[in-house]
């Protein structure tokens, strides 16, 4: 009887995820299998280290700061771990999100303190990270300052010294190429396509325990 109840709960969870995400039922089952295989032994949630391994090895992400921020955005309940539902719903936006969903996601990654705006010092830390990794000038710091001026001029729509969510959203909707202006936090097309080819219909989904 308990097994039947567990199976029913599992099916309900998968059905709810199919309605709430951009994945069909078979794809969700494949993601659940992938999630189970990624877990450490005797655990049912992904820790930060294992999640970063996925971002690095599967999606070629290398920026430690941004990978940490992506983890925090996936971790909706802020318990420091990623459960199965967070894994599937996070990947739904990460892999197949609408422009609006990706705008919301990217800004959340960039918004360190969650106040819905990016101050100049936050922009500095985001841009410094990428510029310092690929220095093109003798004085990288000057390059960072010049880039900040350029970005703030472009995105600070109301000229208040901050890039608010509304500023970012309006700018990206006009120029979608600016979606990841503060750093890469979505998969590149090649790694995205490679990952999507791993979706195969599994024979059986391991029991889910809520």
Automatic annotation (TrEMBL):
SMART domains: EFh. Residues 62-97, 98-133, 143-178 form the EF-hand domain. Pfam families: EF-hand_1 (PF00036), EF-hand_7 (PF13499). Keywords: Calcium, Metal-binding, Repeat. It comes from the Eukaryota. One of its GO terms (molecular function) is calcium ion binding. The keyword Electron transport does not apply. PANTHER family: CALAXIN (PTHR23055:SF60), CALCIUM BINDING PROTEINS (PTHR23055). This is EF-hand calcium-binding domain-containing protein 1. The gene is EFCAB1.
